[in-house]
Amino acid sequence: MSHAVHGPNWPARFGIALLAVIALAVAVALAVTIGEMAIPLDTALKALGNGLFDLDLPVSAIQQGVIFDYRLSRAVMAGLCGGSLALSGAILQALLRNPLAEPYILGISAGASTGAVAVMILGVGGTAMTVSAGAFIGSCAALAVVALLAAGAGGASDRVILAGVAASQLFNAATATIVTTLASAEQARGVMFWLLGNFGGVRWPDLWVATPVALLGFGICMLHAKALDAFAFGADAAASLGVAVMRVRIVLFATTAVLTAVMVSIVGTIGFVGLVIPHAARFLVGAGHARLLPACLVIGAIFMILADILSRVLVPQQILPIGVVTALFGAPAFAFILYRARTPA
């Protein structure tokens, strides 16, 4: 039987990968040229050459700063954030066998926000505690609360989602309490805008943290792609196929917690990306995680970059929080997925 029967051949895979890279490059090109200050593509390319390769091409200082220091760093961060959240959503949906699982709905993002705000406003941990570390502790605390609530309610998949909603409300309340009672007026304004998702404050040093975390997280997930396929039949079936169920769960839950925590600590809480993108990716490439995980990474990155562009152009002379834009797309998609999940497939 030919190899083509079993799956895509290598030329086809190379072609798909090339198309993905081109689509990602087009999204970044749009991100650096579209905005209140319209910039021609050739000027943007010159600015990128100056910034990346230390060339001396003729570009004004204002355009150089807008393109390289503001728009490009923002676009790269948006891509990393979208890909990481989509990847986390795919992992959680596979481990929990629930199409509605994602970091936002399960309360992981809310826990990360609480941890980050505790460090920023309360100074928890002093100089030894970074915002990312606080967000990670918060996300792990949220996971623990969800696990305890779900176990107490019987551990069924739908109970996990309900436990996530409860945990999300708990940590959102804790965050609101910290902000309203202990933050100054200036801190409160900044934190509340940050909590809705904001790429405006992203600069290149933030990417030195986000990039290795995203790439390492993706690598860990890909190493467990076959184990995730086995989870489609349940934990018992996965164990019978030789999967170390407990170890895989611990590693992958920790990976999603780290990915979510780092992204939340930099750009704030962004919902629905981890819910919608894995379903779109499954529709395009199927349920096999060796294909699904890279698709989630790329599609999530493109989606978030385009969403960031919309956040800058939808309202003239204003920038919408990115969480508002993703919710505009994610809420209807959530309703559709919920409708389809009424009955077993």
What report would you give on this structure?
There is one protein chain. The protein has helices spanning 3-6, 10-33, 41-53, 61-96, 108-122, 131-152, 157-182, 185-195, 204-223, 225-231, 235-240, 245-267, 273-285, 289-313, 322-340. By secondary structure, the protein is mostly helical. The chain has one domain: ABC transporter involved in vitamin B12 uptake, BtuC (Orthogonal Bundle). The chain is globular, with a radius of gyration of 21 Å. The protein starts with a helix and ends in a 5-residue tail after the last helix. The model is unreliable at 1-7 (pLDDT under 50).
What is shown here, in short?
Belongs to the binding-protein-dependent transport system permease family. FecCD subfamily. The chain is mainly α.
Describe this protein with a few key phrases.
345 residues; mainly alpha; ABC transporter involved in vitamin B12 uptake, BtuC; 15 helices; cell membrane; Iron complex transport system permease protein; ABC_BtuC-like; transmembrane
The fraction of residues assigned to DSSP E strands is under 5%
How many strands in all?
0
Q: Tell me the number of structural domains.
A: 1
Structural shape: globular
Instruction: Classify the secondary structure makeup into a structural class.
Output: mainly alpha
Give the biggest sheet: none
Q: Can you name the CATH architecture?
A: Orthogonal Bundle
CATH class: Mainly Alpha
Oligomeric state, counting identical vs distinct chains: single chain
Uncertain runs are: 1-7
The CATH topology assignment is: ABC transporter involved in vitamin B12 uptake, BtuC
Average pLDDT reading: 88
